[in-house]
Specification:
Oligomer: single chain
Strand order of the largest sheet: 1-2-4-3
Number of strands: 4
Order of helices and strands: HHHHHEHEEEHHHHHHHH
Radius of gyration: 23 Å
Number of helices: 14
Helix content: over 70%
Strand content: under 5%
Largest sheet: 4 strands, mixed
Distance between the termini: 45 Å
């Protein structure tokens, strides 16, 4: 059984490597052709940045593979025995959180390199080493606190019901919903300084925009995201009464008010179409399938691993194999998400004007150094948004591309 699981994981790694290699080769090929949506120098910089990130991703995947082999080859049994003698709750929480923290520690250098080497080289990083350490420590503490509570909850369910996987799924779905509700508050408390939008004219325009779609918010806020990163972004966070509109200060600095309204119109389109709830439902379907699978693994697997079938071992296997399952499910989620993005773009065009949304998307591509072309296989496995070229064409922009890799067809209108 272990051999079969390792074979499946190896196949997953090979597919990821192949997709990344195709993406790198594709970018290196098309970057020599005419620039798209950018000047020639910006276009080549964006290509180099995309290739560098993909190479870093391949290195991360390889290390994750080595970690997986280590856990399956004896580290699971070692972690299990390390907590022997403790009561059942401490044993379970300690073993699962131990796996999470060891993996996080091993992968930490990649996060540091991405921020202080790659992002710094291409003008994105504005964070200091002290800020990075502080953010890492806070994230670790939050992971320990909330992760331990979740692990304890699932352990209690596993120990109390033969249909534990079904009740565990229901428990995790509640956790997912609570996280969506609390995300804006937690982010504001521990990471970003969030203040009410002071521009009265822009605030009035945004509130008028929200009224048109029935979006009830606890306020419009500005995040000091520029202290860490130069990228442009905004988000609608929370559920129910906790909903709030948060604009990155970088977004306000780079977009005109009309372009900003068009972008927010796009985000409100997601709200009007219930996309957040669709995404939660999609996550629910994925989690249900995963819990059903892991809840019925054969006893022989645990015997081969040299461990007993216990709540913490089940959860550790779940965490180790979750990337494989989610990777191969991602294309289905991506297809739904890309359809939703087209619909949200239509809303943005109706609420803020197609011309302004087009200009905003072009600025986002340029300012974020988002290389606008990608290999079809990469788009199939990784992207939740349609290619920006197709989005712009759907909005009426005349965009010409010197390639036939999936960019020559008209955009879907349904």
């Amino acid at each position: 059984m272990i051999t079969a699981i390792i074979a499946v994981y190896t196949l997953y790694i090979l597919v990821r490597f192949y997709v990344s290699a195709m993406q790198i080769g594709y970018i290196n090929q098309v970057k020599r052709k005419g620039a798209v949506l950018m000047g020639e120098r910006e276009y080549r910089d964006a290509a180099a940045y995309a290739v560098a990130k993909e190479k870093l991703s391949m290195a991360e995947v390889f290390v994750e593979f080595l970690l997986f082999l280590g856990w399956m080859g004896g580290m699971l049994a070692w972690m299990d025995s390390a907590w022997m003698g403790q009561n059942a709750t401490v044993h379970t929480v300690g073993a699962v959180m131990g796996l999470i923290l060891i993996n996080a520690l091993v992968m930490l250098p990649f996060g540091w390199y991405a921020k202080f080497k790659l992002d710094a080289q291409y003008g994105f990083n504005r964070s200091s080493t002290g800020q990075f350490v502080k953010d890492t420590l806070i994230s670790t503490m939050l992971t320990l606190l909330f992760g331990s509570l979740v692990v304890w909850g699932i352990a209690a369910i596993i120990g109390g019901s033969e249909q534990w996987w079904l009740w565990s799924f229901a428990f995790i779905m509640v956790v997912v919903i609570v996280i969506n509700m609390l995300f804006p508050t937690i982010r504001a408390l521990f990471f970003d300084k969030v203040t009410p939008l002071e521009d009265p004219q822009l605030k009035s325009q945004i509130e008028e925009l929200m009224a048109k779609t029935g979006f009830v918010s606890s306020g419009v806020f500005v995040s000091d995201a520029s202290k860490r990163d130069a990228r442009l972004n905004a988000y609608f966070g929370g559920l129910g009464k906790s909903k709030r509109v948060v604009l990155f200060d970088t977004l306000i600095q780079k977009l005109s008010p009309a372009e900003l309204i068009a972008v927010l119109g796009h985000e409100l389109g997601h709200f009007a179409h219930g996309d957040l709830y669709k995404n939660i439902a999609m996550v629910g379907v994925m989690l249900f399938g995963m819990f059903a699978f892991f809840g019925n693994l054969p006893e022989t697997l645990y015997m081969e691993l040299g461990v007993a079938k216990s709540p913490h071992i089940v959860m550790m296997l779940f965490l180790l194999l979750m990337p494989v399952v989610s990777f191969f499910i991602m294309p289905l989620f991506g297809m739904m998400s890309r359809h939703n993005e087209y619909e949200a773009d239509r809303s943005g065009a109706e609420l803020g004007g197609a011309e302004h949304l087009v200009n905003a998307l072009k600025k986002l591509v340029s300012e974020n150094k988002s290389f606008p072309l990608s290999h079809p296989l990469y788009r199939f496995f990784h992207t939740t948004h349609p290619p920006v070229i197709e989005r712009l064409r759907a909005l009426g922009a005349d965009i010409r591309v010197d390639t036939d890799e999936g960019y020559g067809d008209p955009c879907p209108n349904d």
